[in-house]
């Protein structure tokens, strides 16, 4: 997961993924900044558009609306979704590394309502389709095989949850059922969500990993994709990309790699079996292939080393065997320019001073390439090798998994810029396709 850096949460699971074909086909622009303006139901109703190929079957749908903000430092992907009946616009972080989806809740009609969050929150009293899970619900009992969510029974005999992420952020509230209502005739079935009354983030989470309680599984979405626009360092610029649920009209040229899946019998202590795991083969910097064994990018007997594609992580993180080789090559090329004894966010220590360092150092290092199976590559141009982290400092967009406290390689959204990333759940594959994502919104 998320915030200014990733910080993935591992909801350990052993269940095999079962996917169901969906007739939904929707698109939502997303922004790489936090939102400061109030989204309204009027905005949703005027911007969501649907089309149907067969009026007797559940119709496919297409919707489009633009959301922008000026949150300079964040690289999380914010979508605004219509929750409830009638719909209330809710800001959620798109996170392929999490299972539970949750929204900010604030019941304004409560006798003693808690302080409202700083962004528009969901008011359960205004929705006719809202319901709270009772303590007797199976999810409120311990030892659910693929959902190790800490739950308890609150004083009202309702199912209470507490969710903690590796970065120290948290959310707690009640587990509920609610619909996403895109139009009077277009809605999801009731989904199990978290209704957070206390959290450390002003926005909710759209958990969309491979777990049975993720948004994609509950809503029976068989495919989704997004295109992250280039990060803009100029204040006031709010790049917008696109997020598709269902078929993507741009997918003709996508190149696919298999998604690694794990059975219940393969449960390992350091493995996240619900992540979108792929087999990475190597890394090139400036045309030079680093001496890293492909085994470093695959889970070992204990699960360490898996490589996952995570929209909720800003930077990419590498285990020590790979990170040390990358750092060694960067030091060889530009070591004398490196900022001494500086570690950004506690995880990234390949940083440089100077407003023009991103261009200058990037030019010296050259492009960076992540190699996968079947000749598929993620090519990071030299102009986007470094990230502006503020204060005139630029850092290579790669952090140490060890410093993060993780045992995995994580491909973050910083290295997914100008790239379509498609998660095909039916065919268990991940697709990539180059694009100018800033022009698609």
UniProtKB/TrEMBL annotation:
Record GO terms (molecular function): aspartic-type endopeptidase activity
Matches recorded under InterPro entries: Aspartic_peptidase_AS (IPR001969), Pepsin-like_plant (IPR034161), PEPTIDASE_A1 (IPR033121), Peptidase_aspartic_dom_sf (IPR021109), Plant_Aspart_Prot_A1 (IPR051708), TAXi_C (IPR032799), TAXi_N (IPR032861)
Protease recorded as keyword: yes
Gene3D superfamilies assigned: Acid Proteases (2.40.70.10)
Alphabetical keyword list: Aspartyl protease, Glycoprotein, Hydrolase, Protease
GO annotation, biological process: proteolysis
Signal peptide from the UniProt entry: none
CDD domains reported in the protein's UniProt record: pepsin_A_like_plant
GO cellular component: extracellular region
Domain Peptidase A1 per the UniProt entry, residue ranges: 77-433
Family designation: Belongs to the peptidase A1 family.
Identification of the protein by name: Peptidase A1 domain-containing protein
Organism encoding this protein: Arachis hypogaea
